[in-house]
Give the backbone structure.
Amino acid sequence: MSHKILIVDDSKLARMAVVKALKALRPDWPRVEASSADEALACINEQSPDIVLLDFNMPGKDGLVFAAELSQNNPQIVIAVISANRQVEVIHRTEAVGATFLPKPLTEKALADFLNSAVTRQAAAAR
Amino acid sequence: MTSAPVVLTELELDALTELVNLGVSNAAGSFRELVREEVVLSVPKVEVVTRQQALATLSERDAKRLVAVHQDFEGDIRGRALLIFPEAKSMELVRAIVGTDMSVEDIMELEQEALAETGNILLNSCLATIANHFDRSFRISLPEVIYGEGTEFFGPSSGADEGERVLFMFINFAVRHRDIQGYIVMLLDLPSLTTLKSLLAALIERTAGDTIVAPPDVI
C-alpha cells in the first residue's frame, strides 16, 4: 500500500536529498513538497499526507513547533523531524511531541527504518 | 577588475545556506557540551556584500564593544570564521563553561584561554562540516581573540578596501537559560567565489542525483 509523503524544508537542496532517498526506497509513493510550515499546512488540508518529514530550523515557524501542532490536530499523521542539530534537548522535544528524530544529512538507512515503522504504526491504527 | 562578477544561482545560494546551517548545527552540538545548556540558533543569512556593509550588520545589532575569536581558513577557498559576542557577555560565557564556583580573578585569568578554546571547538566543527561536504580539506589557523568595535574583525585587508565585496554568512545564537548571545560569522574572499561555485555545483549534483531532471510538484 502506498503512502503519501510531505517533505517540508526551506532548503531546496535538502528537499532534493530527501526526494533522492525516497526514490530509491519507495519510488511508488506520491511525494509533495513545501518550503515552510504555512505552505505545509495548506498542503496537509488539501492533500492529506500520511507521513510528514519536517526540517527543524526554518524561517517562520520552526519544525518542532509545527510538529507539536500537527500531532495535536492530525494525530493520524506520522512525523519525523530532520536536523543536523543533535542537541539532546532538540531530540527530547521531538520525542515529546510523538515525532521521530532523524539526523541530517539523512541516510537511506535511517529513512528506511523510519518509513518501515511508519507503515507498521499506520497499519496497526487502521485495524 | 575587468572580469564579470561571478554570481551564484538561487540553487547554489540555497545549497550554501543549507551547508552553513549543517555546519552551525553541528557546532551548536559541540557548544552545548561545553555549556551544558541548549544552544538556540537562528536561520542563517548568506549574502554578497561589501566589507563595510558586513560590518554595519554587526554594529547595527551591537554598538558596544565586542569580543571575537577568529580562525582563518584556506585551501580551495579562503576566508575567516568568527565567533562574536558583546564583551560584557564573555565573562558569563566563561562562567558557563568552567562553572560558577570560581572567583572573578580566576575567571578573568581563564577568559582568554576559554574564549580561544570555545572558538576553536565551534569554528572547527563548523568549518570541518563544510569542508567534508565539499570533499575538500581546509588549513585552519590557530584561534585568536580580538577585542574591539568590529572594524578590526574582518581581516587584514579590512582597512585596505572596505568597499571590497565578500560573501557574508551570519547566524545568531543564544544559550537557553543564560544571558549569552552572539553570532557566528563567516567571510569568504570573493576571488574564492569561482571555486565555490564549482564546489557547490558538484555538491548539488551529488545530493540531488537525477532529481534535478524530474522534480516533483512544488506546492
